[in-house]
TrEMBL record:
GO-annotated molecular function: RNA-DNA hybrid ribonuclease activity
Pfam families attached to this UniProt entry: Cauli_VI (PF01693), RNase_H (PF00075)
Protein name, per record: Ribonuclease H
UniProt-listed Enzyme Commission number(s): 3.1.26.4
Family (UniProt): Belongs to the RNase H family.
The species this protein was found in: Dyadobacter linearis
Superkingdom, natural source: Bacteria
């Protein structure tokens, strides 16, 4: 009896699309931060799914895994901090980002949506926005982000994106240039820390579209 074909939808990975071979799908998502994918039994289901948001197809159990016990080296997050996050719509390509004050949950800034961005670009811009905000307010509060990629870009003072420039996303690239110039010409006392989702739960600045 022949094995039934499965259709793998990748919303966020090295390449996006519909794959019929698991190894090909795995190559797009293995080791890719925040990869988003799911299998379907028919090509019709897969074609409909890829036109919609990933979070419409995951259960609460999938979206909120059981948290691991944090080791002493991780500890607990610092309440007196700023937390940032970005959202990227897989259907439209729109990107937006925001920052909140963790202790109160108060939103400090919200930017977007911007056309044809990426999640990592949004995370990068959010961190720089938070740094500039804290500098203006003479604050040394730490900043949390759940994007290792964006944090590495901050350290390098350069957004190493492979996104192609188009007329639609020109404003996003202009923002990236301003952010990189800010990083090149400013120093800051603020620590940029990784939000440890597997131990602490969902990033409090998440847009809540799960």
């Amino acid at each position: 009896m022949s094995k039934k074909t499965k259709y793998y939808v990748v919303w966020q990975g090295r390449k996006t699309g519909i794959f019929t071979d698991w190894k090909e799908c795995e190559a797009q998502i293995k080791g890719f931060e925040d990869a988003r994918y799911k299998s379907f039994e028919s090509v019709e289901e897969a074609e409909k799914a890829i036109q919609r948001d990933y979070w419409e197809f995951v259960t609460k159990k999938d979206a909120k895994p059981v948290l691991k016990e944090a080791p002493a080296s991780v500890g607990k997050p610092i309440k007196n901090s700023i937390i940032v996050d970005a959202a990227w719509n897989t259907a439209t390509g729109d990107m937006e980002y925001q920052g909140i004050y963790y202790q109160t949950g108060k939103r400090i800034f919200l930017q977007g949506p911007f056309q044809d961005g990426t999640n990592n670009i949004g995370e990068f811009l959010a961190i720089v926005h938070a740094l500039a905000y804290l500098q203006k307010n003479e604050s040394s509060l730490p900043i949390y982000s759940d994007s290792r990629t964006a944090i590495s870009w901050i350290k390098k003072k350069h957004a190493n994106t492979k996104l192609a420039l188009t007329p639609r996303n020109k404003p996003v690239f202009e923002m990236l240039q301003r952010a990189e110039r800010w990083l090149a010409s400013n120093t800051y006392p603020n620590k940029i820390l990784k939000w440890e989702t597997e131990y602490w739960g969902e990033n409090p600045a998440d847009f809540g579209r799960k």
